[in-house]
Amino acid sequence: MKSFTNTNPRDLAHALTLVRQTRQGGRTFAFAGGGSDLLGMMKDRLVTPDVVVNLKAIAGLDQVQPDGGGAIVGGLITLDALSRDPLIRRRYPVLAEAAESVATPQIRNVGTLGGNLLQENRCPYYRGPWHCYRHGGMHCYARHGFNREHAIFSGDRCYVVSPSDLAPVIVAGNAIVHVHGPKGPRTMDAEELFVPASQNLTRMHTLDDGEVLTAIEFRVRQPQQQQRPPIEAGLGVRGSVMPIPLEERFPSVFVKYAMRNSFDFALASVCVFLDRDGRRVHRCRIALGAVAATPHRARDAEQVVAGNLLTDDVIHEAGRAAVHGAEPLELNAYKVGLVQKLVTEALQELSA
User: What is the mean pLDDT of the chain?
Assistant: First the structure.
């Protein structure tokens, strides 16, 4: 590993000052939260920062705060604390379940919400000695190589998948992402956080250089009146807070499949949020994990569910619709059937 200087800023302003000073000195930097992914990448020399800006000492970025019917979750909360938080377990149990499904207890004790969302892909060709597209080369070695765990949607020169278990949850739940950087604070919808391979092969997220993911905000938001179909408005078009508990109006479920329940990254996962009054579903958001470079919205399946009762026929049609547009590689065609099964199981659980 290349030698580096570790810094421990007192607050976010101090962290950004350290970043500015590092740049002015012609040196490179990296932010560290839990550091579990960063440390491995530094050992493999995938990143070689001169200065590591350790964010863990900054107070307040690891808290969960109630916000009306929703919650604001600090980006530095550990996955273990997130999985056990009583407010999250009551209002957003899928977020707690997804956090609890990550890796091992040892990793969950140090890994953070922000780190899980922003982690780099796990493609062995990218992490290995091959000069692939993401390393500035002119070839995707996974395309005709060992591609059992790679993308079946939106592959474009590169077929990596988003390895985050929490990413499908914030996309399906239409969370708001809070970031802060040299230009000040800003927010974005969860889907805007992730970058498809067709847009940028060099990164997995849209944060600008020097920006910190400070919080993820879940809120109960009522769609505004717009000239577009309700399914496109989803659950999160910003509007007034509805005076109904989230867990009653918006039931949700998270399902993950991995070779081993402990440690392994998902081969596929699904998160479903419904907006329903009684048995009829008004709106639906379905996000798939580990099948594309970003959490993949199964919009065809959402349209099947929206406006209907969750009957067996609707559930199975939604499962089939969830894999519309899939283009599997030689060794990962099994993911098509796996995704269909996971979506069906998730909707069956919500219909019970």
Answer: 91
pLDDT digits (tens, 9 = 90+) for 245-261: 556 678 999 999 998 87
Q: Which CA distances in Å does 259 have to 96, 102, 184, 234, 290? A: 21, 13, 42, 32, 13
Q: What is the DSSP string of 175-230?
A: -EEEEEETTEEEEEEGGGGB--TTT-SS-SB-PPTT-EEEEEEE--BPPP--SS-H
- CA–CA separation, 334 vs 112, rounded Å? 31
The contacts found for 229-234 with CB under 8 angstroms, 24 or more apart, are 230/282, 230/283, 230/306, 230/307, 231/283, 231/284, 231/299, 231/302, 231/303, 231/306, 233/283, 234/174, 234/283, 234/285
* pLDDT tens per residue across span 43-52: 999 999 999 9
In what side-by-side order are the strands of the sheet with 5-7? 5-7, 51-54, 29-32
In the chain, what are the domains? 1-58 (3.30.43.10), 60-137+146-351 (3.30.465.10)
